[in-house]
Design goal:
Elements lengths: L8 H13 L3 E5 L2 H4 L18 H4 L2 H6 L1 H16 L5 H12 L3 E5 L5 H10 L10 E2 L2 E8 L5 E3 L22 E5 L8 H13 L2 E5 L10 H8 L3 E5 L12 E3 L3 H10 L2
Parallel strand pairs: 1-2, 1-7, 2-3, 7-8, 8-9
Antiparallel strand pairs: 4-5, 4-6
Helix pairs in contact: 1-10, 6-7, 6-10, 8-9
Length: 263
Amino acid sequence: MRHGVTLDPQEIARARILLEDARSILVLTGAGISAESGIPTFRGKGGLWRNHKPEDLATSEAFRRDPRLVWEWYAWRRELIARCRPNPGHRALAGWAMVSAGVTLVTQNVDGLHEAAALDVADGHESERAFPIELHGSLFRVRCTRCTYRAPDRKMVDASGHAALPHCPQCSALLRPDVVWFGESLDTVLLDRAFRAAEAAEICLGVGTSALVHPAASLPLATLRAGGKLVEVNPDPTVLTTLATVSLRANSGETLQRLLLGS
Ligand code: APR
C-alpha cells in the first residue's frame, strides 16, 4: 500500500456533497483499487508481472505464436489473484452502489474483485447495481478461439504442454482467457452502455486509474464534455487531476469508506 498520503477531511466533505447531490454517477476503476488487495498495478512501482510486460504477452500475436507461454502467464495471474480478496475499497463501493440509484460501475480490471465484493455485501439483497461493466473482460472467464463458446472458469490451468491447455467442449479448438488484449477492440455493447452512462452522469468518480488507456480513459472526458464534474481518488496525480473538481490524493481503501460510507 502506498504510504505518505493523507486524507484531507475538507476535500472528502466537498467530494461527498458532490456525490450526494448527483442524480447519476459513473464510477470508473483501474488497477489501483486492487493494489491494497495485493495485486500489482500495471504502471505503478512493481508494475511488472513476473518479469513480463503485459504488452508483450497480452496480445493475440503472442497467443498465436506461443499459446502455452501466454496461458502459463495467465495461469500464474489467475493463481495469484484467486488468493486475493476484495479490500475495503471494493466493499465500500459495492455497498454504496447497491443502495444508490443512478450509479453505474465500470471497471478496467479483470481480477473479478468488484464481483466478489458485490457477492460479499449482497447477502440476499438485490446487488445488480454493484456488479461492474467489465470493459476489459475477466481472468475468470474463457472463450473459444473458433466458435462462440464463452463460460466462467476459475479452474487452475495446466500450462505444462499444449495438449493440457484448455480446449472448447463444443468444437475442441483452443480456449483463451476472455480478456481484451492490446490491439483488440472492446465489446461494443458494453462500451456503448459505459459511454451512455458517462454522458448522462453528473459526476464521474475515477478510482485508481492512470487514465492512459483508451477508450476507457475517454469515459471521464465524456462526462466532462456533457457538463458533468470529475472526482478522483489516487495517491498520485494523473492526467485527470487538473480536470477534477476534487482530487483526493490518497489510497482508495480508506478513502472510499470515508467518502461513500462516511466511516
Ligand atoms: N489506491 C488508489 N490508486 C492507487 C493505489 C491505491 N492504493 N495504488 C496505486 N494507485 C494508482 C496509481 O497511482 C496509478 O495511477 O492506480 C493507478 C494504476 O494505473 P495503471 O497501473 O496504469 O492501471 P490502469 O489505469 O487500470 O490501466 C488501464 O491498461 O495495461 C492496461 O488493460 C490494462 O486495464 C489496464 C489498463
